[in-house]
Amino acid sequence: MRKKKYKIVIDTNVFISALKSRKGASFKLLFDVPRRKYEQNISSTLIFEYESVAKRESGNISMSDSQIDAILDMICKISTKCEIFFLWRPYLKDPKDDFILELAIESHSEIIVTYNKDDFIGVDKFGIKVLTPKEFLKKIGEI
User: Fold this and answer.
1) Residues 92, 98 contacting (CB under 8 angstroms)
2) The CATH number of the domain where 100 resides is what?
């Protein structure tokens, strides 16, 4: 029997955490877990957010802009791209997170992976769960 491939959206804080350390659940999720276990959904807004925050934090990440660009290119290549046609704003307590919810809804994602679970209170109304990277890795049997 084939295991379910989860459709997920990875919040920016998880992406930045993966760039900062190779030891944590974020790094394992983005770079070690076989993609047959999940489908990462992205939008141009999310990729621009990843890029903006990563380059702003480049001193804490110890990566050059070109290395960050290469990782973003890899994510774009292996992820499912979605266009957002309907806005759900304002919905979340932090309006800057609404685009993550909109992407999750548009892509039919079941899970938002984030370290800021409290920022996504109420998304269960859309059938979306909010998990930390470690919780998601446990769910898919990677830890």
Assistant:
1) yes
2) 3.40.50.1010
